[in-house]
Amino acid sequence: MLCERSRFLLQGLKCRRTFVTVSTAAEKVFSDTSSAAFLAAAGNLKSVPQLHVTGRANVGKSTLFNAVLGRKTLLHTSSKAGRTRELNFYRVGKDPGKLVLVDAPGYGARGKREWGELFDGYLETRKQLKRVYILFNAKHGLNETDTSMLQHLSQYLISKEGTQPFTLQSVITKVDLVPSNQVAAAIAQIKKDIFAAAPLCLPPILTSCEMDPPFGIENIRKNIAEACELA
Questions:
Q1: What is the per-residue pLDDT across 97-150, written as a single tens digit (0 to 9) for each?
Q2: Would the CA dihedral through 62, 63, 68, 74 be positive or negative?
Q3: Residue limits of the EngB-type G domain (predicted)?
Q4: DSSP H or E stretch at residue 189
């Protein structure tokens, strides 16, 4: 999953001097869940709309995305990996929206080279991109593919000019699937593995979309608002 600041607000908020907390900003941005809408799908860089979350296939990406948007079926969820094959853009809030979330194809055994090329091209050229969210299944931890992806993403975190074009945020999904007496050790190991592969990756946010109410979603929303400089 990736988040972008709306081009409209990038221009329109420069002269404003009103300050609100991250929590209040997130509540305002995500309060009108009925207005969240699909904007466009991009199968190649030429079709990316002029206005990015990733994770290993079947890590619960679409389910988390729906929860963050406050919807249940805006994104189609499937037990089969590799359902997402394009960059899918979703507006948050009423038109023109305050930010855009982008659902990216999963990586791993079901991934395809052309999906990776599209994703990399997006990272290299998308000026509006503020933060990339990479998801890990709490029950499975990191595998070799996850480690490679973290290392790959780290290459983009510092530009040739020495600036940071976007930030990388880790998210741990399906925490409820880990036995309670094993959660602490499992999370500690995942944190250790993330840091070893990508020291600049932000510490993980813990989530579970199967709990009632879902756990960690408000933290994700606040994180997105902060990344998009809405506070």
A1: 778 888 887 775 444 455 568 888 888 888 888 999 999 999 999 999 899 999
A2: positive
A3: 47-230
A4: helix 183-197
Sign of the dihedral defined by the CA atoms of residues 106, 117, 227, 141, in that order:
positive
CA angle 231, 39, 201 (to 5 degrees): 50
CA count, 13 A, side-chain hemisphere, 176: 11
- Please give the single-letter amino acid code of residue 35: S
pTM: 0.76
CA distance 231 to 227: 9
Residue 216 phi, psi dihedral angles, 5° rounding: 90, -5
Q: What would the two tokens of residue 142 be?
A: 């990191």
How far from 130 is each of 2, 142, 146, 157, 168, CA to CA, in Å?
Answer: 8, 24, 21, 11, 9
Q: Is the pLDDT of residue 22 over 90?
A: no
Q: What is the C-alpha separation between 105 and 115, in angstroms, rounded?
A: 7
Q: What angle do CA 93, 70, 194 make, to 5 degrees?
A: 100
Q: Which residue has 């070799």 as its token pair? A: 144
Closest CA to 2 of 104, 136, 98, 75: 104
Q: What residues have CB less than 8 Å from 33, skipping those under 6 apart?
A: 69, 70, 71
